[in-house]
Amino acid sequence: MRSPSSAVDSVPSPTVSEWPPYIAFEGAEGSGKSTQAARLAGAIGAVLTRETGGTDIGARLREILHDTNVQNLDPRAEALITAADRAQHIAQVVRPALDAGDPVVSDRSVYSSLAYQGYGRELDVDEIRHLNEWGTTGVWPTTVVFLDTPDDVISERMSRRDLDRFEAAGAEFHARVLAGFRAMAAADPDRWITVQAVGSVDRVAEESQLALNERKPRGPARSAPPPPRGPGRSGTTSSASLPPCATSERPPIAEPFTPICSWGPPVPPRSRPLVRSPHV
């Protein structure tokens, strides 16, 4: 495991002004977030994790949220379950990694709750934000990479899957979710990077890393400004010990691939014990 001081020494990039960064990949279902999160984590030697299901407790909550046999789950109950998963994830995975000086790359984050339960389920986005602000103790991603994917590409990818509860929520729901992501990205350009997720995995990875390298300096992970107002809403829309589903091992990187992040060259897997979950 790298020491915090060696991590700082390996970061000549102005991408973030504080080490370590907390980077989240966001986007619609089938946009390639999981693949690109793993690629970036491998390139910079980050802790790779995800929401929902990034801890043992979170994996059990995820089963409820994604199970197609779960019927009539109230949107507020869904928002609370998702927030509970995130509170545990921040406390058990993200904050310990950041406190140890380790960068974190996550497949989804608090912004998915704003998009899915706020815009998608048409709950008050400001209420969702405040709930998660409390649950995360104010720890939000320093940078969000939004993989904006055309509808026809998503439809083609979804046609090859057995859809879970969210994926099967219908076209109108997913249109609202995507509109929410786009609105948040437009409202907070200092935090968000939008990458057109079309073409090969390598091309999207290269575009993502080039965009990250061009970022202006940012401060440490902390809460974000309110999301923008959305139509039809009542309010403002404004590793000490790694659990399953979070890994400090360098994720597999498809070849050929040359990391271009100016954070420094890829680092070998850390010496921490790796515990994998069957839910990953």
Explain the overall architecture.
The protein is α/β, with parallel strands linked by helices and 280 residues long. It contains nine helices and five strands; from the N terminus they run H-E-H-E-H-H-E-H-H-E-H-H-E-H. The chain has a five-stranded parallel β-sheet with strand order 2-3-1-4-5, with helices on both faces. It is globular.
What's a quick, concise take on this entry?
This protein is α/β, with parallel strands linked by helices and 280 residues long. It is 41% helix and 9% strand.
Task: Work out the oligomeric state of the chains in this entry.
Answer: single chain
Instruction: Tell me about the largest β-sheet.
Output: 5 strands, parallel
In DSSP terms, counting alpha (H) and pi (I) runs of 4 or more, how many helices?
9
Summarize the amount of helix as a percent range. Answer: 40-55%
Proportion of β residues?
5-15%
SSE topology:
Blueprint: H1 4-9, E1 22-27, H2 33-44, E2 47-50, H3 56-66, H4 75-99, E3 104-107, H5 110-120, H6 125-135, E4 143-148, H7 151-158, H8 171-187, E5 192-196, H9 201-213
Parallel strand pairs: 1-3, 1-4, 2-3, 4-5
Helix pairs in contact: 2-9, 3-4, 4-6, 5-6, 5-8
Task: Name the descriptors.
disordered N terminus, 41% helix, 5 strands, alpha/beta, 280 residues, globular, disordered C terminus, five-stranded parallel β-sheet
